Amino acid sequence: MNTMISMRIWTDKGQEILYDTENLIFEIEDTFSATRAGTDIYELNANKNNWVALSPSTLEVLAYAKEITASTKGAFNPMVYPLVKAWGFTTSSQQVPSPEEIASILPLVDTTLLSLNEETLQGQVLGGAEVDFGGIAKGYAVDEIATFLEENQVDTALLSLGGNVYTLGKKTDGSLWNIGIQNPYGGGSVGSVAVFDKAIITSGGYQRYFTYEDETYWHIIDPRTGNPAKSGLASVTVISDSGMYGDCLSTALFVMGLEESIAYWNSHQDFDAVFITDEEDIYITEGIADVFTLSKGYSSGSLQVIES
Ligand code: AMP
Ligand code: MG
User: Fold this and answer.
1) Using an 8 Å Cβ cutoff, are 221 and 82 in contact?
2) CA 40–ligand 2 middle distance (angstroms)
3) 3-class SS at 151?
4) In ligand 1, which atom is closest to the CA atom of 34?
5) In 33-133, where does DSSP find H-type helix?
6) Would you give per-residue pLDDT tens digits along the chain (308 residues)?
7) Least CB-packed of 16, 51, 115, 235 within 10 Å?
8) Which atom of ligand 1 is nearest to 90's Cα?
């Protein structure tokens, strides 16, 4: 998954369960990777205008991604892959595409170019469209791992897939987990949230970027402009029951910016969030006001609670 993975599992069942969990991650990667031949997503993209056999999990995630695209008015869009490629984020060499190139790609970033058939277990992309699970796969993976662990009578685990955290149960002493929210402007955290049984998922420009002629360009693309999203936010952390929801949303809210994000939160009310702005101010939704602790000595910006 191109990221650091750390899993801490409290169990009396021995190492076995850790290896099974690791295998589950490899399985998900073998199904969802856009860059490795043979995966569902790779084959879907490679066989445009043809129906391609897909596993039920791929169809489930594709259908879910389409729903979120609709509910976020296109801020999250799994069809962003041609743009991700044009900016070079699939490789180690990035570049700034010309406005003409971006304009020619934008019509492909459209979920109506993706057809799904849940009965025959097939999917199809039309024209030059391509799918990318980069914004959703890690959230899906933490949900799958958490479910697998629960099915195997594990009550306590702390999962972290490159900034995508899941807390299963409470700590063994019955207390909550304190999950740090990374400071986008340097090492350490701006604060922490005390939670259990939650996904804590962060999207930030600092996670993957390149600089060219003094400009910074990051991996989260605004599907409406084709350029890296510059919405005034440095990072968004979503705290939710579902990792898949949190993963999609953290990406979407980063694209939307603070104002549109607050409107989305107000109309949905099924998650909490921590926003860090370019001015280094921190905004948290009221549901976590009592469990958020600002790091000692954080004085770069103010802390404000968003109320419904
Ligand atoms: P995340 O780290 O979850 O915010 O996801 C970022 C990754 O998702 C990028 O590396 C791209 O592969 C992909 N991506 C970028 N922009 C978007 C977007 N607006 N909607 C969906 N996926 C995106
Ligand atoms: Mg995401």
Assistant:
1) no
2) 19
3) helix
4) 12
5) 40-46, 56-71, 81-86, 99-105
6) 888 999 999 999 888 999 999 999 999 999 999 999 999 999 999 999 999 999 999 999 999 999 999 999 999 999 999 999 999 998 888 999 999 999 999 999 999 999 999 999 999 999 999 999 999 999 999 999 999 999 999 999 999 998 799 999 999 999 999 999 999 998 899 999 999 999 999 999 988 999 999 999 999 999 999 999 999 999 999 999 999 999 999 999 999 999 999 999 999 999 999 999 999 999 999 999 999 999 998 988 999 999 99
7) 16
8) 12
Beta bridge partners of 76: none
Bridge-based pairing state of the strands 164-168 and 198-204: antiparallel
Ligand 1-lining residues (CB < 6 angstroms): 76-78, 80, 84, 89, 132, 134-135, 203, 219-221, 223, 247, 250-251, 255
Say if CB 192 and CB 178 are below 8 A apart.
yes
Residue type, 29: E
> Distance, CA 173 to ligand 2 centroid (Å)?
31
Q: Look up tokens 């899941």; give the residue.
A: 166
Residue nearest to atom 22 of ligand 1 (CA): 135
Instruction: For residue 228, list its beta bridge partners.
Output: 221
Query: How many Å apart are CA 236 and CA 5, to the nearest integer?
Result: 20
CA-closest residue to ligand 1 atom 11: 134
| Ligand 1, atom 8, residue with closest C-alpha | 135
The C-alpha atoms of residue 229 and residue 164 are separated, in whole angstroms, by 20
Q: Which ligand is nearest to the CA of 89?
A: 1
Rounded to the nearest angstrom, the distance between the alpha carbon of 57 and the centre of ligand 1 is 19
Question: From the CA of 242, how far away is ligand 1's center (Å)?
Answer: 18
* Closest ligand by atom to 255 CA: 1
- φ/ψ region of 213 (left if φ > 0, alpha if ψ in -120 to 50, else beta) reads left
Pairing of the two strands 209-212 and 215-218 = antiparallel
- Give 250 Cα–ligand 2 centroid separation in angstroms: 5
